[in-house]
Every structure is written in structure tokens, then in C-alpha cells.
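Hello support,

Our group uses your service weekly, and this is the first time we've seen a run hang past the timeout. The protein is NCS1 family nucleobase:cation symporter-1. I'm not sure whether the cause is the sequence or the server load. Input pasted verbatim:
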Amino acid sequence: MTGTVPTSAPGPQDAPGSGTADELTHPDGRVELPEGAIPDGSRFANADLRPVPLAKRRWTTYNFAAVWIGMAHNIPSWLLASGLVALGMDWKQAVFTIALANVIVLLPMLLTGHAGPKYGIPFPVFARASFGLRGANLPALIRAAVACCWFGIQTWIGGQGIFVLLGKIFGGWTEAAKIGGQPWTLWLCFLLFWALELAIIYRGMETLRRFENWAAPFVIVGAFVLLAWMAVKAGGFGPLLDEPSKLGWGPEFWPVFFPSLMGMIAFWSTLSLNIPDFTRFGAGQRAQVWGQSLGLPTTMTLFALLSVFVTSGSQVVYGTSIWDPVKLAGKTDNIFGLLFALITVLVATISVNLAANVVSPAYDLANLAPRFVNFRTGALITGVVGVVIMPWKLTETPELYIYTWLGTVGGLLGTVAGILIADYWLVRRTRLHLADLYREGGAYWYDAGWNWRAVAAFVVGGLLAVGGSYSAKGKGPFPADGLIPFLQPLADYGWAVGVASSLLLYVALTRVSPPKGT
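Update from on-call engineer: The timeout came from a worker crash unrelated to the input. Re-ran successfully.
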């Protein structure tokens, strides 16, 4: 490892550790900070935001693959295929759309994930390189807000699953008196599930890693048990596999395909930003690249296929397509089967919700006020906000879920991803000065802690990506001709527009007006 006296002020072209006395660069290119590099009491650091020491970067390919398997196998993932079929696609078109979306979103995940194993930093610290030490709070809080909403959605769905299955085990459970339009027993299931999730994440990232290691194979087994059970009852898979598309492959298909593709990409676009929160624990680049590549696109495609095949069997057995796996499992009268389904729903939902929707906002909120908010406090705040936003409203219809929620979120997060990728890969060529990410007045201080180039790229890219958002009459919150009518043609490609426009504009602004010290 190296550590030499600096000869000039660090900038984007400086190699990490080569030319700085306060960094240690190891032979494999990974960088860490020696003791004392970050002053005690720094307002830009706490124990959770500091770089992970090399000795603790030990997640392997299996750990990353297990995280993705655990996250992909959840009820909203299962329902993605059903939402696309409800919009008129046949099962082949739905599975193709989901598979393509996950191959596409894998690329920005690998690009942003690179900084994790190399520098051991979480997403909000990584964003300081492009947005500035203070400016990083802008993308961090946007990402945190989205994660809080997702946490609420997943917790509500998990609570519903417990409610339905317990209703089969304990007669009368679902007929309880209503509060706020829902049985009080449903609210109880929701709150108990919420408390269980926060209890697990409160124990920290190492507990999460161990949980994901066994949760991933358990959920896979549970999905295949459901498939086998339905195959036996159906005597094979039925007419749904032969049901033609209502859209065909012609002019009616593509106006549905592209916004749906963007929505499917948006499903994991949150993780394409904060994936350094996980890869910072990686044993090396090989572990995160192979783990993510083996875990994400394969698992999501397999899960979409399982969803279609099981639903096909339900058409034969019950005379109607039951897309919700919880409602389908609730059809059995076997107590063992119901308990197994209940445990699978619990494990699957907890697995994705903790990894995808609590880790990120916990770090993001800690970045906002490092002296007062740590990882555990941030997780508790996430849990509270996830209830306040009333998540049951966001999944009422496929149009609201896929077009409005996923489409808008995808456009904004794609804009942030474009800036992060442009700064790290095109401007800095993966070279960061690690200590300055925690230091006022350093290379990433810019103008009072804000990089106006990143903010300008975000505003313009976000406007292009979501400014034309529209809804079919009576099926969403946006005007039928778009918020900004002349931008409506871009709305169906929100994530791609956000990534491309912000990336190009950020690079252009940085070349035209380079920051001091570059």
C-alpha cells in the first residue's frame, strides 16, 4: 500500500492515494483512510458514513446474489407481470418487457456500484463528489423520500398477506369491525409487520447480510412449492398460456410497451443509485459485478415466469386468473400449507423491504445531519414516514402503480443516475480523493458545498423526464395532455430521457466551466 506527501491540490484527475498522505491504496486498487484522516466531531461524518475498512469489506459473490434473490422474490415483483397483462399484454410480452428492463437497469447499477468496493463509501457520500458536500443532500433526500414510500407499500402488502392467511386459519379474523374503512385486524397486521421489520434492521447491516443469506433460498423454495401445488391441482397449465395479446405486436403494442418498460426499469432504479450502500461491503469488484449480474436479471425473469405459470393454473382450477399469490395460497384448506405460505410471505417481504427501502434512507438521513442521526435513527424515521404517506393509495390500479408512481419516480432517479455516472466515469475516471469527501474546503466543496453544474443538470434533466407526465382521463393525477404539453412525447421514455440528458449536460457544463482545482 502507498501513502506519499501531496504535491498539489487534489482534483478529479488525481489517482486515489497516489499523492496523498491521508489515504492508503492497496495493490488491488481499493482505498481506505488511516486513523485520524477524518477529524473527530466532523459535521460531515459519523460512524455509519465513514469508509468501511478493508478488513470489513467481505461480502462475496454469493452475498450479493443472495441479496438480489431475496429482493426480487417479493409480492410487488410477482404482481408486475399481472399489471402488464392487465394492460393488454400476453404472458410472453410481459415476461419479455420485465427481462429487458432488468438487463438495462443492471448497467447503471454496475457503474455506480463500482465506487463501493473501491472506496467503501455509501451513496450519499458518493454523491458528494458530483453534487458537493452539502449539495449531496438533494439527491439523497429524493432517494430517501422514494424509499420511504416503497417501504410503506411493501409493509402494507406484507400486512395484507398476514391478514388474508390468518383469516383462513382463524375464522372471523377478516370480518372484524372496521376502522378507517379497513378491519381493525388488518391495521394490527400492518403495525405488527412494521415493528418486526424495524426490529431486524435496528441490529445493523451484518444482521441483514445473515438474514438475506438464508432468506433467498427459502423464498425460491416457497415459490416452487406454490408452482408444484398448482400444477398438481390443475393437472398442467391452462389456457392463459394460449391467450392472445389484446395489443398484438403492431401499433397498439408500442405505446403501451415503452412506458411499461420505463416503469419496469423504475422498479429497481432506486437501487441503481444507492447500490454503493451494499457494494461498500464487497470483497472486490468481481464479487459485486458477478453477484449482481447473476442475481438480478435472472431472478426477476424467473419470478415473472413463475407468476404467469401459477396464474395459468389458477385459471384452470378456479375458473378465474388469481394473480395475487397471497389470495391464491389462501384458497387451500391445509393448515400446514397456510402456515408455510404465511412464513414465505413474511420472509419474502421483509427480505426486499429491509434491503431495498430501509438501508438507503437510513444512510441518506444520516448524511443530512451526521451529528444527530445515525443509521438506526434514520431507519426509525423511515418507518414512521412510510406509514404517514398512506401507501395503500399508491397501488390501487395498474395505471396508478406503473405509469404514475413508477414512471415519475423513474424519471427523477434516472436524472440523478446520469449525473453520478457522468461524474465518476467520464469526468473523474473512477478516481476520487477519499478524505476530501468528508472535508470542508476540499476538492468537493465547490461553491459553499454545492456544485451548481450538478444542480443545473438535475433540474433540466428532471424537467425533460417528467415535465410531460400525463394520465388517461380519470385514471391518474396528471392532465391528459401532460403537465407541460410540448414535453408529453418524452414522458413515455422518462428514465432514459433523464439519464441521457443529465449525463450530457453535466459533462458539457464541467468542460465549459471546470470547478476550481480540476
